[in-house]
């Protein structure tokens, strides 16, 4: 069984600076391939101009991949995730592979766009709908952040989410400790972490 992730930028034709958007997408894909290499079966690649696709071996890195894309793409995007067998040989060029996993991922992406969800999951997981629901609630919290809030919260997340991270953030952003905690509270980061924990347990 393989897991295929297919993404597409939301309302990409309305993006003012398409060149910058493309650069961000290329950078995001490069970072995912570099940081999650141990779990990638076929590298993520840009498809169709504003889309991307890759194949992974395990569900439990999806949330981290999403955070990586979220941090760098800097534009809303849909995801369609499908799992199943493939009918062609493996290749490092994901466009050369086909099979049920790809068909389900494509169908999931179409559903995500039609129903305006951040992600749709088509898998054989026992609690597929529950997992998809928690993914969407979690991602909805992330996309509610202002640029400033996003920057601070991601800095905290990327620096081990501890008191040392708080201290580093106060120096980097020249604000007090209480302001950092207030940003995390307003950004509902504890609720997001709760969602992550639920997903972690469901995706074991």
Summarize the structure.
InterPro entries: SatD (IPR032580). This protein is an alpha+beta fold.
In total, how many beta strands? 5
What name does the CATH topology of the largest domain carry? Alpha-Beta Plaits
What is the arithmetic mean of pLDDT?
95
End-to-end gap: 15 Å
Organism: Methanobacterium formicicum
Protein name: SatD
Q: Please, could you describe this protein's structure?
A:
It is built from eight helices and five strands, in the order βαββαβαβααααα. By secondary structure, the protein is an alpha+beta fold. It folds into two domains: 2-122, Reverse transcriptase/Diguanylate cyclase domain (Alpha-Beta Plaits), CATH 3.30.70.270; 147-187. The protein has a five-stranded mixed β-sheet. The longest helix is centred in the first third of the chain and has 18 residues, at 18-35. The model has no long low-confidence stretch (mean pLDDT 95).
Detail the topology: elements first, then pairings.
Blueprint: E1 2-9, H1 18-35, E2 40-47, E3 51-56, H2 62-73, E4 77-84, H3 100-115, E5 119-122, H4 128-143, H5 147-158, H6 163-173, H7 177-186, H8 189-202
């Amino acid at each position: 069984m393989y897991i295929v992730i297919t993404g597409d930028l939301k309302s990409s034709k309305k993006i003012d600076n398409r060149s910058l958007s493309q650069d961000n997408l290329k950078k995001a894909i490069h970072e995912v391939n570099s940081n999650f290499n141990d779990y990638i079966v076929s590298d993520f690649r840009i498809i169709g101009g504003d889309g991307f696709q890759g194949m992974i071996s395990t569900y439990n890195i999806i949330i981290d991949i999403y955070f990586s894309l979220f941090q760098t793409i800097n534009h809303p995007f849909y995801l369609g995730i499908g799992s199943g067998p493939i009918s062609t040989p493996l290749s490092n060029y994901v466009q050369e592979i086909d099979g049920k996993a790809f068909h389900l991922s494509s169908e999931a992406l179409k559903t995500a766009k039609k129903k305006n969800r951040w992600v749709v999951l088509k898998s054989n997981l026992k609690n597929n709908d529950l997992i998809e629901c928690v993914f969407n609630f979690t991602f909805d919290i992330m996309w509610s952040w202002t640029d400033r809030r996003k920057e601070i919260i991601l800095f905290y997340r990327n620096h081990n989410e501890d008191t040392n991270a708080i201290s580093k953030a106060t120096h980097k952003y020249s604000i007090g400790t209480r302001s950092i905690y207030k940003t995390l509270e307003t950004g509902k980061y504890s609720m997001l972490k709760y969602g992550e924990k639920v997903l972690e347990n469901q995706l074991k």
